[in-house]
């Protein structure tokens, strides 16, 4: 059996925006959610370390992973613009995402 493709990364939330970050993701745009699924994301989790406001994201991908093309899509750029005021971002408003390499799997 082949191992699932996974990716984990860390992002940073700005102080005071914990509830707003959760609210925005609770209300994620249906077209963005659908786009992620169509790009091959089968599971996507984001966890918050409340002490440091670090966000830890974990994604699983199916066989048809086309997520590399997502940054060029207008809806992805709109989402980044929407989230830019509450988290650390790059100059294009994409979140600063620090890869977390896998070191163990059970």
From TrEMBL:
Q: Enumerate the Gene3D superfamilies for this protein.
A: 3.30.70.100
Q: Does the keyword Cytoplasm apply?
A: yes
Name this protein carries in UniProt: L-rhamnose mutarotase
NCBIfam families documented for this protein = YiiL_rotase
Q: According to the lineage, what is the superkingdom?
A: Bacteria
Q: Which SUPFAM superfamilies match?
A: Dimeric alpha+beta barrel (SSF54909)
Query: From the record, what ranges are coiled-coil?
Result: none
E.C. no: 5.1.3.32
InterPro entries tied to this protein: Dimeric_a/b-barrel (IPR011008), L-rhamnose_mutarotase (IPR013448), Rham/fucose_mutarotase (IPR008000)
Swiss-Prot/TrEMBL keywords: Carbohydrate metabolism, Cytoplasm, Isomerase, Rhamnose metabolism
